[in-house]
Amino acid sequence: MKISQLLIALALSVSGAAFAADKHADGHEIKPMHGGAVTEAKDIDYELVTKPDKLQLYMRDHGKPLDLAGMSAKVTLLSGGDKQDVQLQPVDGKLEATGSFKVGTGTKAVVAVSKAGKAVASVRFVLK
Questions:
Q1: pLDDT score, position 128
Q2: Which of 24, 27, 25 shows the shortest CA–CA distance to 38?
Q3: Least buried of 4, 30, 36, 124, by fewest C-beta within 10 Å?
Q4: 49 or 22, which is more confident?
Q5: Once rounded to an integer, what is the mean pLDDT over residues 8-23?
Q6: Cα–Cα distance for residue pair 111/96, rounded to 1 Å
Q7: DSSP-assigned states of every residue in 91-126
Q8: Cβ–Cβ contacts within 10 Å for residue 114, how many?
Q9: Is 42 left (phi over 0), alpha (psi -120 to 50) or beta?
Q10: Cα distances (angstroms) measured from residue 113 to each of 12, 53, 63, 86, 90
């Protein structure tokens, strides 16, 4: 095999791994159900919906909403040199906060989810 063929094969295998990053271990894609950014951690789908006046975090286990009793989340928004910490509380099947938020393209969000004061997961998003 020529070096160029080997490099092409290597590039294709790496690009396939990048596409697989948006899928669960069982092979299905994680799709937003509320128009937000999605990621998966510890077999739970997290969807962060961001608006200039509202942040919402939806959590699903195999497509079913989680029971949010006792849950909260702290969102850290990083936009350019600005940092904003926001506390989310349960509201109608999601964790939510209202206020004024810098959520433009490229903003990074780090979400620390906890239940009864104990850390459950930490997930990261880059807003598009």
A1: 87
A2: 24
A3: 4
A4: 49
A5: 38
A6: 12
A7: ETTEEEEES-----TT-EEEEEEEETTEEEEEEEEE
A8: 15
A9: left
A10: 36, 21, 18, 12, 12
Cα separation, 32 vs 110, whole angstroms: 18
β partners of residue 34: none
Beta pairing partners, 66: none
- Using DSSP's 3-state secondary structure scheme, residue 86 falls into strand
Q: Is the pLDDT of residue 62 over 60?
A: yes
pLDDT at 11: 44
- Enumerate residues 6+ apart whose C-beta is below 8 A from 38: 30, 31, 32, 45, 46, 47, 48
Q: What token pair was written down for 121?
A: 């997961």
- The candidate with the shortest Cα–Cα distance to 82, out of 56, 64, 100, 69, is 100
Q: Which of 20, 23, 120 is nearest to 69 (CA)?
A: 120
For residue 48, give the DSSP letter. Answer: E
- In the chain, the amino acid numbered 15 is S
| Structure tokens given for 73 | 């989340």
In 10 A of CB 74, how many CB atoms?
A: 15
